TrEMBL record:
Compositionally biased region (Acidic residues): 10-19
Region (Disordered): 1-33
InterPro entries per the UniProt record, alphabetical: Cbl-dep_enz_cat, MeMalonylCoA_mutase_a/b_cat
Methylmalonyl-CoA mutase alpha/beta chain catalytic domain sequence ranges: 196-448
Protein name (Swiss-Prot/TrEMBL): Methylmalonyl-CoA mutase family protein
Domain of life of the native organism: Bacteria
Subunit structure: Heterodimer of an alpha and a beta chain.
Gene3D superfamilies in the cross-refs: Cobalamin-binding domain, Methylmalonyl-CoA mutase
């Protein structure tokens, strides 16, 4: 154990941090666990949940608990030193201290944008991401551009430069021109003003449904093309690298997000090295738009908090938390306040920014970072050889849609634990146009079934509660309510023993009383027309059920 003390304190005086002689072991022998011990305990849990059979070997827990990302990368359930044996990449985030809290401002209405910008700045944001063409004299009136960086998105860079005139600009200012449209002329203008000019916005690929690896690969392909264009126009690699900022999406899958941002820096470093250049990546992370839900939007606060945490831990220089009510329309003052305060809480109260690269050295994170960097580099090479990225993304979208349909990738408040009677907040303006991951389920909720399903339970409350609750929540995810009154579509919920003993008789009686379609909560039965259980294609099941109700 190393005891780090100040020079003034010297190294001779013992401290409370220093263990007594002969007690360097941090755990007593009876508290020391091996991987074999972990396998045994984990296997016991899986056997209780029927995921392992009694005669299965304990070591099967690795296969049972290992999951695969959309890029096909295996994520093991336990980090071990052996994970670091074959790492090929290295590099750590460079941000020191607090990240830049960047507020997203829709500039289409210049006066409203002006009001929102001033409130956000007064509330503690440190930069503005101004989207859309706007009247800069109105939108930025009163904004101290030497203290608060302004990052344009879709605006007119010449009009912005004309507006600010000779005023000093914060070096974090960015004219926001897509790297694919970069010119040496605009680059030199920005260089003279000491600001950036270009953005490689990989969040646009994320919004199309891309995986983390595809997002990274696309950004490197754009970066390589950008460097070629500007160096051919007479700029050096280092000059061009200093003018561009990278933007990535941060999701509520915290470890993949942390790994993605760390991997991005390693990839950019490699691209610069191969281009005979050097420099650090300037990184802006924005919370994912597709992960948001229009139903039970309050859950979006939790999603964006996890995403912002991951972005900060991953080393992002700037972080934008999008308001939770964005899927409903233009966010109101409350939504914007919660968005900016998310970073404040993480920085000032949770002290997340006080440690540089807190995930560094974690066996699992280092392995995931390396795997993701390697997968992205491989795809980057294929893109350079002409691979069709759109086709690759389409496969990812199909895979994700399948996982969401079967609820292996649950969306709280939408596919899991939906609340049919909720009253959604009302927001003015158009919602964020991106297609959300739960769009198929949202479409069902948008047009709720006019007729409920008759929920028929067998046995005592204790006997039928589990399956009745499962079926009720599943039906609600498709906009279908349940009732205890007789109807054309019936869902029977009970134990397997009850089904064996009286299922056929109950189903026959229900049909006599007018039931036209009988569903069993559990595995299929001969006396039922349909069934629903864990792993069912919920979207397909709900569509069938709604057709029977229509």
């Amino acid at each position: 154990m190393t005891d780090q003390r100040s020079v003034e304190g010297g190294l001779d005086e013992p401290t409370e941090l220093e263990p007594e002689q002969g007690s360097l072991d941090l755990a007593a022998p009876e508290d020391t666990w091996t991987a074999t011990d972990w396998e045994r305990e984990a296997a016991a849990v899986l056997r209780k949940s029927k995921r392992l059979k009694d005669d299965d070997a304990d070591e099967l827990v690795w296969a049972k608990l290992t999951r695969r990302t959309l890029d096909g990368i295996e994520v093991t359930p336990l980090g071990t030193p052996a994970l670091l044996d074959d790492l090929e990449t290295s590099g750590r985030p460079t941000r020191q201290g607090d990240w830049d809290i960047r507020a997203y401002v829709d500039g289409r209405d210049a006066r409203l944008a002006h009001e929102e910008a001033l409130v956000d700045l007064d509330g503690g944001v440190t930069s503005l991401w101004l989207a859309g063409g706007t009247d800069y004299a109105v939108a930025l009136d009163g904004v101290l551009v030497d203290l608060a960086p302004v990052v344009l998105d879709g605006g007119d860079p010449d009009a912005f430069l004309q507006y600010v005139g000779d005023r000093e600009l914060h070096p974090g200012t960015n004219l926001g021109v897509p790297a694919s449209e970069a010119t040496a002329e605009l680059g030199r203008k920005a260089w003279q003003r000491g600001i950036r000019a270009f953005v490689i916005d990989a969040s646009t690929i994320h919004d199309q449904g891309a995986s983390d690896g595809q997002e990274l690969a696309w950004s490197m392909a754009e970066a390589a093309s950008y460097l070629r264009r500007l160096t051919e126009a007479g700029m050096t690699v280092d000059e061009a690298a200093g003018l561009v900022e990278f933007r990535y999406a941060a999701t509520d899958e915290q470890f993949p997000t942390i790994a993605k941002l760390r991997a991005a820096r390693r990839l950019w470093s490699r691209v610069l090295e191969m281009s005979q250049g050097a420099g650090e990546m300037t990184q802006h992370a924005v919370t994912s738009r597709p992960m948001m839900s229009r139903y039970d939007p309050w859950v979006n606060m939790l999603r964006t908090t996890v995403a912002a945490f991951a972005a900060g831990v991953g080393g992002a220089d700037s972080v934008t938390v999008l308001p939770f009510d964005g899927p409903l329309g233009r966010p109101d003052a409350f939504g914007r306040r919660i968005a900016r305060n998310t970073s404040h809480l993480l920085i000032d109260e949770a002290h997340v920014a006080h440690v540089a690269d807190p995930a560094g050295g974690s066996y699992a994170v280092e392995k995931l970072t390396d795997d993701l960097a390697r997968a992205a580099w491989e795809l980057f090479g294929r893109l350079d050889d002409g691979a069709d990225l759109a086709a690759e993304i389409a496969k990812t979208v199909e895979k994700r849609e399948r996982q969401i349909a079967t609820r292996k990738r649950p969306i709280t408040g939408l596919t899991e634990f939906p609340h049919l009677a909720e009253e959604l907040p009302v927001r003015e303006g158009e919602p964020d146009p991106v297609r959300r991951y739960g769009a198929s389920f949202e479409a069902l909720r948008d047009a709720p079934a006019a007729t409920p399903v008759h929920l028929a339970t067998l046995g005592t409350v204790a006997q039928h509660t589990a399956r009745a609750t499962f079926a009720t929540n599943l039906l609600a995810a498709g906009g279908i309510a349940v009732t205890t009154e007789a109807g054309r579509v019936v869902c029977v919920a009970g134990t397997d023993a009850a089904y064996d003993e009286q299922g056929a008789e109950v189903a026959a009686e229900l049909r006599t009383n007018g039931a036209e379609w009988v569903i069993v909560a559990g595995q299929p039965r001969d006396w039922a027309d349909d069934s629903c259980a864990m792993g069912v294609d919920a979207l397909d099941f709900l569509t069938r059920t709604r057709e029977k109700l229509a």
